Fold this protein.
Amino acid sequence: MKLDPRTKLFMVFVVSLIVMMSAITPFLWAIRLSITLIPIILMILEKKYSSALKFLLAYASALVLMFYFLSEQSEGLIASLLIGYCGIVVQFMPALITAWYVVRTTKIGEFMSCMQKMHVPDGIAVSLAVVMRFFPTIKEEYSSINDAMRMRGVMLGGGNVLRMFEFRMIPLLFSCVNIGEELSAAAITRGLGGEVKRSSVIELKLGIADFFLMAFLTAATVIFVVFKYFL
Amino acid sequence: MSIVELENVNFQYKGSKDGSLNNINLNIEKGQTVLLCGASGSGKTSIIRLINGLIPHYYSGELEGDIRVAGHDVKKTELHELAGTVGTVFQNPRSQFFSVDTDGEIAFGPENIGLEPKEIKARLNDVVAEMDLDELLGRSIFDLSGGQKQRIACASVAALLPDIILLDEPSSNLDFDSIELLRGTILEWKRQGKTIIISEHRLWYLKDAVDRVIYMENGVMAKEWTGEEFKGLNEEEVKSYKLRPIVLEEELIRDIRGESTSSFCDVENNIELNDFFFSYKRRPYLLFKKKFKESDGDLLNLNIPSLKIPKGKVIGLVGPNGTGKSTFLRCLCGLEGDCKGAIVSDGKIYKARQRLKICYLVMQDVNHQLFTDSVKSEVMLSMKDEDEKRCDEILESLGLLDYKDTHPMALSGGQKQRVAIASAIASGAEILLFDEPTSGLDYSHMEKVGELLNELASTGASVIVSTHDPELISECCDYVLGIKHGKAVYLKENKKL
Amino acid sequence: MENTSKKLKAKDFITVGIFAAILFAVEFAFGMLGYIHPYIVASYVIILPLASGIPMMLFYTKVEKFGMITILSILLAIIMFIGGMGYLGAPLIIGAGVIADLIAKSGQYKSFKKIVISFGIFNLWICANYFPILVTAESYRQDLIDGGYSAEYANNLFAAINVKTIGVLVVLCFIFGCIGAVIGKAVVKKHFEKAGIV
């Protein structure tokens, strides 16, 4: 399914907003869960079955743990670790998974076009686009560095926490700075940063799915806020 | 009519003598194809950067003289104004992309100069048709091979319809077949009447395309040939200029493409590899990984049930890109934990993590494997018991002793590679693996790497080197091992020069 | 790049984007620790400035014009918002960024003293993430408990972060920002300057 990037951004916004407000009644939980299901359904539509299933299992197990095994009275180290795990999964995973979905399925060109439509200055749009483009690069570089560390047997920095950090950070920064230099040079020689207004080959158009999803998200947000704070 | 004019140009980078230029006078006519050759650091890349304006607008330094490109005074022209006139294909396909998807990358340039969407689409279609890119459209850049990335880079430059196209060592990361495609692209541009300037170490693929060849040495234009003269140079002359060969032997080409008809030769003193299976696709199961065996066939990216390789020799690992060379190296040295293969050497069996101890892989991008702030501590890091004397010996043997206290990142590419080799030796690894160690090197550096590999083998280490350089194979490999579709297809003895 | 004009160029925007991505990767790696125990949430003011000191000092060597630090803080605010860290903090993050930018500018982005202070201020974005805990203390506590957290976690969180300790946290954040800057600078000297990259 092809969604407009504006819809996707709106979805990120709504999901981030709703996970920040905790659900206190079963009804609010129902809204929150249905919002969380949206990125999962979208992932399945994108054929990312494995990620969708993993997320679903993690989320479900965290919920079950939270409601049946942990309570207001839980104390002790293990409970506190479990709370930590559940906290991450329940509170942050929906937002992260949505963001991940958006980054994975939005082309840089679409994103730039969307930013233009929303009158975001070109500079900030370029910076944000680079952030999006750079995550996979960091991942790639980091895994190469990790390989090299494993080969040299310095994964634990010889037992020194600072070296553990240094050995990962320094080569990563060297690589990123180099790639950045070359990336800028290649982008500028292809005309980035000129005075003319950038155009965009992608013409964005909101489809039925977009309107439907946006309406649903808006409604969910309004109902959530009204029921939580005013009723 | 000259489209590029360099007049009395002198240039020196800020804080570095490398790549400086001395009194360059160069006129290039419209429609000419010019090749710049010569050793690394001789100023080839600097000339490219003068023409696309990266010098002085991006790389600063002291610049004298006049540079005029298609009527623009480059010194006074902003970089983005040159975008529709001069296009540049860079060396490293990994870093020259702005977008993540291929279509967006081709449209990126035209969007920057503010063309109408309709016009951009038309150009996109033209470029795709001309360069036969249909199968690459709509894909993520991160899933493409080096050769495919380079084709997209060429397309994204062509979409701006520049009159002048510059290529800075474009074949560095490509295999034989990708280089053939690159040659096709260059010939197509030539047919369209574009002015093309190429800086390159690999020469064989350009011999029929170029009109002029300029030989650079220490920042001066030391020699110039016409295309015809260049083709006529004999092997001795080419060697005397320290250039890579212009003509490749047919047999070597077959070898390098993994298409030799040889089978497996017998080796007495050997290392045995057993059960090396591996796949990047894990689709059959959702939550846990599949254990692979030989019968999985096409699913496997590496499928080597058993193989005997010679010990204490240099073995060239060949075959087209994407058919399993790097996977083989990664599995062999134990970096892919899912590959359960075993190495049998001297009657001892090494499995899983133990493989990491007897193997050492020198990566294609050595920058990833240098961690400390001096060459000396880099080598010491690899030793189980720190031994300064041994460290000095190793550095001495690699000619690095003078750089003992230098930061590894401050060294040249070849020196960094030797630091990585030094730590490999220090770690006591018996099997040394090299992933395309000579891809961006000039002839004399390549020769040095070849000598070094032979020296390593003479101390008893088994050296396996994956490569696309026929020159390297003929210089230093005792054996050639062909890999295709994840399978070992032949192992043959090689006559060294 | 020699640059006479004060306007930011494409290269600057790309640099900001790259460092924002790196910074986020570092925050993310350490941020996840916070759920183990609330005291770790409070100790972000120490861990994060120290960890981000190295990339940030490298970033500062690339800043020559006003706006780069500000844009970095805008990107950070957006990323933190998406990461579910709350919308109340976003203006504060950007505010800290602008002030940090102005301070560094007053030293022409060269004076190390000014850079130290600037980075100290920049780090207040970490405290901005505590903001919702403060302003909505009582309802937030109830939220946490209703949302499935144990009372112990909530109590610990409020023992660590409340109106009384926030002053201490802000000061700590600033001080460790300065320390992070000094350490970061030392590492940049040890590696990047020695290698001739900056």
